[in-house]
């Protein structure tokens, strides 16, 4: 069991928005999860509008190598808002329209109608970004993994679950369609090259890659609950080889902080604009109002374009305008414009329970200084 003792802390000037001892308590929650063996390693980074307040890394890889803030982690579905931002760049340039039928750009895309009669030709770009297309993921497990071609064929032929726009069903494989639309609009460049040139490089996200073995930065281990290490290793190789745009990126705390702060500032960071403020507002607006995810009971998704809206569902102490994305590997990126706050949590356990990162988020918010109370009204006698 790896311990969180001797966690590596990146010192930063104390941020005026935080109560120092309470912020330390938030980092102690992460260290406890590592010390108790729930996570082999983890990194928590907290930032305000002007930059990181503190970054703490704890734990180690199976080889004994200490994990630092420089390590890449599999961020899983935190990939989605990054990819969605790249898609929105093409929307801003007028190369793709949110209302454009997918089949017009990708003629092979012809899923069978849903039982209720919805047609594949009715699916627009915004349906994919908001998980309301009716297209469902391929069913697979780490020891029975499909090829990229299998996934594409499934997306193009499988019957829709419901008519486009009628409900919500979270999907990852549909991001292959988004990636292919971007590639077809960028002069033949691969999606990974387009993403790097247009988004990652301008933000200085040099550690972020679909390839965890890419030189320049060390990578943290990835484990899966109840899955043998040799199967995890084969899955990791397969996932990296596919460059899965719905969950395949590896990134560092510093890189996620840069991306999160750019979103906090309406698409700008350090004089560079990667997206307009109106596009950021559109992405982070609830696009699924009135829709539910099938289940018992049905769940309100509160999802935008590549971002969820946790402040609308009432389970976290975030502001109503906060937006975030979580990943199956225990990763999380949360941006709260009202509080001027960015939180990035990186872990390496696929299937880690979401309540662990909820504990961290609640502890960070408890460290925010309370606003000065408003003075009592004149004549109130108080």
What is the compact description of this entry?
By secondary structure, the protein is an alpha+beta fold. Helix content is 30%, strand content 13%.
Summarize the structure in words.
- With 382 residues, the protein is of the alpha+beta class.
- The strands form four sheets. It has a six-stranded antiparallel beta sheet with strand order 1-3-2-11-10-9, sandwiched between helices. A two-stranded antiparallel ribbon has the order 4-6.
- The longest helix has 16 residues.
- The termini are far apart.
- The relative contact order is 0.17.
- The mean pLDDT is 91.
The number of distinct β-strands equals: 12
- The CATH architecture designation of the largest domain is 3-Layer(aba) Sandwich
How do the helices and strands follow one another from N- to C-terminus? EHEEEHHHHHHEHEHEEHEEEEH
CATH superfamily heading of the largest domain: DD-peptidase/beta-lactamase superfamily
Number of domains: 2
- Class computed from helices, strands and strand pairing: alpha+beta
Instruction: Describe the global form.
Output: globular
Assign a percent range to the helix content: 25-40%
How do the strands of the widest beta sheet line up side by side? Answer: 1-3-2-11-10-9
Largest sheet geometry = 6 strands, antiparallel
